[in-house]
Specification:
This protein is an alpha/beta fold. The protein has helices at 42-50, 72-77, 95-102, 111-120, 122-126, 137-149, 167-184, 195-200, 219-224, 226-232, and strands at 4-13, 16-26, 31-35, 57-62, 65-66, 80-83, 155-159, 187-191, 204-209, 212-217. The structure holds adenosine-5'-triphosphate (ATP). Keywords: Amino-acid transport, ATP-binding, Nucleotide-binding, Transport.
């Protein structure tokens, strides 16, 4: 059984059904990327998995446990964290205070955990006493990711880790995600607009379009597919 399994997920907002029965699997220590056009439902799928919105139909299991109806805070306690694309840090708290908030439900957090975060993203060490809201979008993204990692999760859902980064820093972010996976054994499920770069570091990829699965395969399979290339990777 995969670490995360979502089967036939139907969800949406109010009366609007956005996901029409989506399947996705993430294995332990895998990097998996979801791509697809704007409005395909990628972020909605992450919110449904994490319990921020209800699954109307279908099932989500994590580590063999049915988490379909758990609240987000309960899902976090199971070892699954979520880094949204926007408003993902406490802007009036310092970098260090944000990391402390990330670790708030973990009584075992130690100075070593902070040092690990600073080694991963040295800019956070330099700016540890700076208010998070005064940092660039890309730096806030690094902080949000680091805050999620303070809990040593088994899986993190990351909505557009490269958003807000200068183009020359995008590859560096993907390299760091690979390092995070390799060093901490954390699996990563991400949504990405920089689809080619994300798929090139991914064990698996999914194409979501109009709230439905269109393609699935290894990252390389999707990169090699003429159809995926033409329809979803800009030719
Ligand atoms: N809070 C909300 N309330 C109502 N509709 C929403 C809400 N959030 C998203 N939607 C709608 O759900 C659909 C899917 O949005 P979603 O953000 O999941 O797409 P996406 O694939 O992540 O797109 P993008 O790449 O643009 O972020 C869109 O039509 C969007 O307008």
């Amino acid at each position: 059984m995969a670490l995360l399994e979502a089967r036939g997920v139907v969800s949406g907002y109010g009366d609007a059904e956005i996901l029409h029965g989506v399947d996705i699997e993430v294995g332990a220590e895998e990097i998996v990327t979801i791509i697809g056009p704007n409005g395909a439902g990628k972020s909605t799928l992450m919110k449904a998995i994490y319990g921020l919105i209800d699954c109307w139909e279908g099932q989500v299991t994590f580590d063999g446990l049915d988490i379909t109806d758990l609240r987000a805070d309960e899902v976090t306690e199971q070892g699954l964290c979520y880094v949204p694309q926007r408003e993902n840090v406490f802007p009036t708290l310092t970098v260090r205070e944000n990391l402390e908030m990330g670790a708030y439900i973990d009584a075992d957090v130690s100075e070593a955990d902070f040092q690990e975060a600073f080694e991963r993203f040295p800019v956070l060490r330099e700016r540890q006493n700076q208010k998070a809201g005064t940092m660039s979008g890309g730096q806030q993204q690094m902080l949000a990711l680091s805050s999620a990692l303070m809990l040593d999760p088994e899986l993190i859902l990351v909505d557009e880790p490269s958003a807000g980064l200068a183009p020359d820093l995008v590859d560096d972010m993907f390299d760091r995600l690979v390092r995070i996976r390799d060093e901490t054994d954390t699996a990563i499920l991400m949504v990405e607009q920089n689809a080619r770069q994300a798929l090139s570091v991914s064990d698996k990829g999914y194409v979501l379009d109009m709230g439905e699965n269109k393609f699935a395969g290894s990252g390389q399979d999707l990169l090699d597919s003429d159809e995926v290339g033409e329809l979803y990777l800009g030719g």
